[in-house]
């Protein structure tokens, strides 16, 4: 779909990647409905994206609230969205022993269950259109799991699997399902511990505008999946062929995780 023909519901719009996606989509000519939890942040963002007399519409919603998911779907359908970009999500980094059951459940709910339920709520509307697209902003970690990201990777592997299954389920319809896998990105989503881990392991970080531009290309080129960065793309391919053979490649990552002082404190009895 050409960006200028797109009417995009963008979740997680006030996050780092969400803001970059909104800028890139608007610059390419798309209409955008911004969505996030904070009305105040959405108003500020809509005003910042104003172009002449055109200002994006917005709809506040907590995607972990099923009632608000249904309400957002109804608003987006009434607005006549034909593209949904799921960019909302929450982070999780550290040894599993340091994660609480409550945090694990909340990450799974926000990163996996919420986009599944929003897609389900919007699907009847999207299937009535001649063409529609659903894009999940996941992560390279949805195809290549690393030490310290077991919980986060579980949600992104699940999201990628959901996208793959749904894409095949809807292949006979006008709804295209896609997955974008950025590598580590410079946003507040990655805290100081993640940045220290990335430095210790030599992991590159992309600027958010690279992700925004990649999202627009994915929308227009209609590719099923796209992963960003090298050697990450190669790692995804090799891990898909022989994941166990890749285990030894990440010993440095496991050691770097264990050596982070702030994370040691979280796992001490």
From TrEMBL:
Q: Where is the Ketoreductase domain?
A: 6-185
Q: Does the keyword Magnesium apply?
A: no
InterPro entries listed in its UniProt record? KR_dom, NAD(P)-bd_dom_sf, Sc_DH/Rdtase_CS, SDR_fam
Keyword annotations for this protein?
A: Oxidoreductase
UniProt GO cellular component terms = membrane
Query: What would be an example GO MF term here?
Result: oxidoreductase activity
| Tree of life domain | Bacteria
Enumerate the PROSITE patterns for this protein.
Answer: ADH_SHORT
What's this protein's family per the entry? Belongs to the short-chain dehydrogenases/reductases (SDR) family.
Q: What is this protein called?
A: SDR family oxidoreductase
Species of the source: Ramlibacter cellulosilyticus
């Amino acid at each position: 779909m050409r960006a200028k023909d797109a009417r995009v519901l963008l979740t997680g719009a006030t996050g780092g990647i969400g803001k970059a996606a909104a800028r890139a989509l608007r610059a390419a000519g798309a209409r955008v409905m911004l969505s996030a939890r904070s009305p105040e942040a959405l108003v500020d963002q809509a005003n910042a994206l104003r172009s002449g007399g055109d200002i994006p519409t917005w709809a506040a919603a907590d995607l972990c609230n099923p009632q608000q998911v249904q309400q957002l779907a109804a608003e987006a359908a009434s607005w006549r969205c034909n593209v949904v970009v799921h960019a909302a999500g929450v982070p999780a980094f550290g040894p599993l022993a340091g994660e609480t059951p409550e945090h694990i459940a909340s990450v799974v709910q926000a990163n996996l269950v919420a986009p599944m339920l929003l897609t389900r709520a919007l699907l009847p509307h999207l299937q009535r259109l001649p063409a529609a697209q659903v894009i999940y902003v996941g992560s390279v970690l949805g195809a290549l799991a690393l030490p310290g990201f077991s919980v986060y990777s579980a949600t992104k592997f699940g999201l990628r699997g959901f996208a793959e299954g749904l894409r095949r389920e809807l292949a006979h319809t006008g709804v295209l399902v896609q997955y974008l896998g950025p590598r580590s990105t410079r946003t507040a989503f990655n805290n100081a511990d993640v940045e220290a881990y990335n430095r210790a392991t030599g992991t590159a970080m992309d600027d958010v505008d690279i992700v925004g531009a990649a999202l627009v290309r994915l929308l227009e080129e209609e590719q099923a999946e796209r992963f960003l960065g090298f050697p990450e793309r190669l790692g995804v391919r090799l891990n898909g062929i022989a994941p166990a053979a890749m285990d030894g490649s990440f010993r440095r990552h496991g050691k770097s995780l264990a050596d982070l002082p702030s994370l040691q404190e979280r796992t001490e009895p």
